[in-house]
Design goal:
The structure is a single chain. The protein has one domain. It is 42% helix and 17% strand. It has a 3-stranded parallel sheet, with helices on both faces. Strands 1-2 form a two-stranded antiparallel sheet. The longest helix has 23 residues. It is globular.
């Protein structure tokens, strides 16, 4: 369990990666999303292993750069490559399980964080459309 903070009722809220391997952090500006993500990244890097932290704003996670087990990716092409590499790794693991492998044997575990994902996706779509128009 990785602690995220306190809920409206004052009780601790956390992420159990075994129960839910995906985590979505949402909320209005100023609500603490980046602080929660930093906590998850630091905890994961110290306790579990490798983190790929995608920061399209390029300034939200300056303190994470150079931290052991954390790779910060800021350029759009690098972020896209990191997401595709994670997808390829996930598909390779699924194929190994289908072939009779033990899912628990796959290590190291990897955490991929895409901050501002909606903005990144929209920027990627706009860039892709722009490249398509240029090549037309």
């Amino acid at each position: 369990m990785i602690a995220l903070g306190a809920g409206d009722d004052g009780h601790a809220v956390g992420w159990d990666r075994d129960a839910a391997p995906h985590l979505l952090v949402t909320g209005p500006t100023g609500s603490g999303k980046t602080v929660a993500i930093r906590g998850v990244v630091v905890t994961w890097a110290l306790a579990v292993g490798r983190v790929v932290l995608c920061d399209p704003k390029r300034v939200e996670y300056l303190a994470m750069r150079g931290r052991q087990s954390v790779e910060v990716v800021t350029d759009p092409d690098g972020i896209a490559a990191a997401v595709l590499a994670a997808r390829d790794e996930m598909n390779a693991r699924y194929a190994a399980v289908e072939a009779g492998g033990d899912a628990a044997a796959f290590t190291p575990l990897l955490l991929v964080v895409v901050d501002e994902a909606a903005a990144f996706i929209e920027d990627a779509r706009q860039g892709h459309r722009g490249r398509r128009r240029q090549g037309a």
